[in-house]
Design brief:
single chain; alpha+beta; 2 domains; three-stranded antiparallel sheet; 3 helices; 3 strands
Length: 112
């Protein structure tokens, strides 16, 4: 028998199993998350339990993607605010708008 693996068998469902000698898929269990399927694969394969590290790694990647998207939305909002400030045409307020726009440009320049 080959090693256990997991596949996304349908949206929101991961199936643990293995391919037999004839190459036919043999399912062992179904799970609601890739993390749970990975944990089961680790146990079935009998190797060192890397599940906690794998679960933490997956969570870190999800966090990274969330914050990356959030930063991009913030960059877009700042760029939009700069455009609006550049178009601001109220008497005696132009120097203030220019200062704010300059601060926002500096924030964009320093952002990751």
């Amino acid at each position: 028998m080959s090693a256990y693996v997991y596949v996304r068998s349908e949206p929101g469902l991961w199936t643990v199993g293995y391919y037999d000698a004839a190459g036919k898929w043999q399912s062992e269990s179904d799970h609601d998350s890739s993390e749970a399927a990975a944990e089961r694969v680790g146990l079935l394969n009998g190797g060192p339990d890397l599940t906690p590290a794998l679960v933490r790694s997956i969570a870190l990647v999800k966090d990274r993607d969330h914050y990356k998207a959030r930063c991009e939305r913030m960059r877009e909002a700042i760029a939009s605010a700069i455009t609006r400030l550049d178009d601001w045409q109220f008497p005696n307020s132009q120097p203030i708008a220019e200062d704010i726009a300059d601060d926002l440009r500096a924030a964009l320049k320093d952002s990751p």
